[in-house]
């Protein structure tokens, strides 16, 4: 079973890296970009086929390590 | 008084910290590798600066989850003083011993220079050697020192006198909210700060403004 965890900054948390990327896109001539927020993606390969158990385990991983829940949100996608 | 310096792979300011504690405290601190069985019975635990685990994932995140940090958490709960400098501050925050988060500097640059600090509160073992409102010099060297906390946490820190140091005179090097450079735990026995007071303790450093922190701390920890 495979899983993808996406970690992004919460709304209201300043993202200087996102702002720098936005500025760079503008300087490359890509107009109309109203905002950029950058984040992280984790691709995991898991044992077993119980999706519910996997989701519970992944939530634990996010809460304990993969995301800093003070400033970040996370999203879990599971695929077989 | 007894002190211990915790060392994780990738820290590189441990020798400076050991030298400062030895010079000012008059005794060498115990040096504890993160995989050692235990931390000796000490009054002060110091986590120095550097780049633990290469700053992978988030600065301090991996070190903060090591079993050794459970011991630090227990000791802190029993009143042992804990000091985290730079990466040590990041580790304490990631370990939940201090609130908030340390984010990428707003300039996106690694900043290595001297700043001015205001000693914001002195009713604790760490800053008792300074006077409230005193401005001191201190070096900083970091990429992720931009302190952030939600409005509620910030109000609590300010209201409870838990901001120990603030960047002063327009020298905020990283965009920290409220110019915060160092904060205390609720019981004020845990201090984390981004600047390096251990690097300004003798005339060869060009100043001794960092000395009073260790002098007060080592005296009180006795």
UniProtKB/TrEMBL annotation, chain A:
GO CC annotation: cytoplasm
Catalytic activity, reaction form: N(2)-formyl-N(1)-(5-phospho-beta-D-ribosyl)glycinamide + L-glutamine + ATP + H2O = 2-formamido-N(1)-(5-O-phospho-beta-D-ribosyl)acetamidine + L-glutamate + ADP + phosphate + H(+)
A Pfam family assignment: PurS
GO molecular function, one term: ATP binding
The protein's annotated pathway: Purine metabolism; IMP biosynthesis via de novo pathway; 5-amino-1-(5-phospho-D-ribosyl)imidazole from N(2)-formyl-N(1)-(5-phospho-D-ribosyl)glycinamide: step 1/2
Enzyme class label: ligase
Keywords assigned: ATP-binding, Cytoplasm, Ligase, Nucleotide-binding, Purine biosynthesis
EC number per UniProt: 6.3.5.3
Any Gene Ontology biological process: 'de novo' IMP biosynthetic process
Location relative to the cell: Cytoplasm
Subunit and partners: Part of the FGAM synthase complex composed of 1 PurL, 1 PurQ and 2 PurS subunits.
Family per record: Belongs to the PurS family.
Purpose of the protein: Part of the phosphoribosylformylglycinamidine synthase complex involved in the purines biosynthetic pathway. Catalyzes the ATP-dependent conversion of formylglycinamide ribonucleotide (FGAR) and glutamine to yield formylglycinamidine ribonucleotide (FGAM) and glutamate. The FGAM synthase complex is composed of three subunits. PurQ produces an ammonia molecule by converting glutamine to glutamate. PurL transfers the ammonia molecule to FGAR to form FGAM in an ATP-dependent manner.
Protein name as catalogued: Phosphoribosylformylglycinamidine synthase subunit PurS
Species of provenance: Devosia crocina
Gene name for this UniProt entry: purS
From TrEMBL, chain B:
Annotated pathway: Purine metabolism; IMP biosynthesis via de novo pathway; 5-amino-1-(5-phospho-D-ribosyl)imidazole from N(2)-formyl-N(1)-(5-phospho-D-ribosyl)glycinamide: step 1/2
GO biological process, one term: 'de novo' IMP biosynthetic process
GO cellular component labels: cytoplasm
InterPro entries found in the cross-reference section: Class_I_gatase-like, PRibForGlyAmidine_synth_PurQ
Subcellular location, record wording: Cytoplasm
GO molecular function, one term: glutaminase activity
Entry keyword Nucleotide-binding: yes
Active-site residues per Swiss-Prot or TrEMBL entry: 86 (nucleophile), 196, 198
Reaction equation(s) it catalyzes: L-glutamine + H2O = L-glutamate + NH4(+); N(2)-formyl-N(1)-(5-phospho-beta-D-ribosyl)glycinamide + L-glutamine + ATP + H2O = 2-formamido-N(1)-(5-O-phospho-beta-D-ribosyl)acetamidine + L-glutamate + ADP + phosphate + H(+)
EC number: 6.3.5.3, 3.5.1.2
Key words of the record: ATP-binding, Cytoplasm, Glutamine amidotransferase, Hydrolase, Ligase, Nucleotide-binding, Purine biosynthesis
SUPFAM superfamilies, A to Z: Class I glutamine amidotransferase-like
Entry keyword ATP-binding: yes
Function comment: Part of the phosphoribosylformylglycinamidine synthase complex involved in the purines biosynthetic pathway. Catalyzes the ATP-dependent conversion of formylglycinamide ribonucleotide (FGAR) and glutamine to yield formylglycinamidine ribonucleotide (FGAM) and glutamate. The FGAM synthase complex is composed of three subunits. PurQ produces an ammonia molecule by converting glutamine to glutamate. PurL transfers the ammonia molecule to FGAR to form FGAM in an ATP-dependent manner.
Description of how the protein assembles with itself and partners: Part of the FGAM synthase complex composed of 1 PurL, 1 PurQ and 2 PurS subunits.
UniProt-recorded name of the protein: Phosphoribosylformylglycinamidine synthase subunit PurQ
Gene: purQ
């Amino acid at each position: 079973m495979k899983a993808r965890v996406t970690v992004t900054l919460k709304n209201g948390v300043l993202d200087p890296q996102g702002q720098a990327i936005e500025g760079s896109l503008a300087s490359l001539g890509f107009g109309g970009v109203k905002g950029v927020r950058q984040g992280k993606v984790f691709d995991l390969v898991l044992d077993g086929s119980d999706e519910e158990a996997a989701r519970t385990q992944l939530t634990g991983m996010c809460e304990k390590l993969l995301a800093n829940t003070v400033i970040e949100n996370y999203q879990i996608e599971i695929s077989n | 008084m007894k002190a211990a310096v915790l060392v994780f792979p990738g820290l590189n300011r441990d020798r400076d910290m050991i030298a400062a504690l030895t010079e000012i405290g008059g005794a060498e601190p115990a040096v504890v590798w993160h995989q050692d069985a235990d931390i000796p019975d000490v009054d002060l635990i110091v986590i120095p600066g550097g780049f633990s685990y290469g700053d992978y994932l988030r600065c301090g995140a991996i070190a903060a989850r090591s079993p050794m940090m459970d011991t630090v958490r227990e000791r802190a709960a029993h009143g042992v003083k804990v000091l985290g400098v730079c990466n040590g501050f990041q580790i304490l925050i990631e370990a939940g011993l201090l609130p908030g988060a340390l984010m990428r500097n707003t300039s996106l640059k690694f900043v290595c220079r001297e700043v001015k600090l205001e000693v914001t509160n002195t009713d604790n073992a760490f800053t008792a050697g300074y006077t409230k409102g005193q401005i001191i010099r201190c070096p900083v060297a970091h990429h992720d020192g931009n302190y952030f906390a939600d409005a509620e946490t910030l109000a609590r820190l300010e209201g409870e006198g838990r901001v120990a140091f603030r960047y002063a005179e327009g020298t905020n090097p990283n965009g920290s909210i409220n110019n915060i450079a160092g904060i205390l735990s609720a019981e004020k026995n845990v201090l984390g700060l981004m600047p390096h007071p251990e690097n300004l303790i003798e005339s060869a450093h060009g100043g001794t403004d960092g000395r009073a922190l260790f002098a007060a701390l080592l005296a009180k920890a006795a």
